[in-house]
Structures are given as structure tokens and as C-alpha cells.
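Appendix C reproduces, verbatim, an entry submitted by the partner laboratory led by Prof. M.T., so that reviewers can inspect both the input and the predicted structure.
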Amino acid sequence: MPASSHRLAPRSTPRLVQDTGRRLGLTGYGIPPPPAHTAHPQPGDRLLFFTDGLTDARSATGELFGEEHLPDIAVRVLADGLPSPEALRRLIQQILVHQDQRLGDDATVLLAEWHPGRR
């Protein structure tokens, strides 16, 4: 199951900084490993990783949640300045609302926040 990632700016100015366009996934079976990607996150940057189960979520009428819709929702949720766990909970809730609270596919989402030197 391929995964995608987005880099989001610090919570003080939430916006999509970069859609890496990178796909993460299994290698082997004749599939070459994905190319290496280097990022230079700033303190407070958040990285959003997700599988296609998130973007392939369908409403009761068949409308896809879509890769275009996800960054807009993520930025809106992060604009509230909430800690990452609560922001992620709200993002997941938006996806569940889109699907009428029914999961139709397996989905994985990870929101990581960069804080160098913090333990």
C-alpha cells in the first residue's frame, strides 16, 4: 500500500510547504526502492504521512476524499494551534465524517512534529 507525505509549516503559520510527491511502500517483487529524499525541517514543522486508505475514503454518494482535499483539511485543523495528537484526532474525525463514520478501507496516518534537541 503506497503512502504519501506532506510537509507542513510550524503551527504558528500552518500551510502546506511541500508535497513531497514521494511514495513510500514495499520494495522487492521487482519494485525498485523509492528514491532518497532529504528534508530540512524547521523546529515545529510537522510531517504528515498517510496511506491511500485515507485519500480513497468515499462518502455515501461515492465522492472520494482525495489527495487534493487532504492538505486543505490538514491546514485548517492545524490552524487551531492544537498539539499534534489533538490535531491528528480532528483530522481523522473529518475523514470519518466524510465516510459517514464507516471505514471502507484500511488507512494509516502519522503526524510527526520536529523538535530537535528536545527529549
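The mean pLDDT is 75. Additional entries are available on request from the coordinating office.
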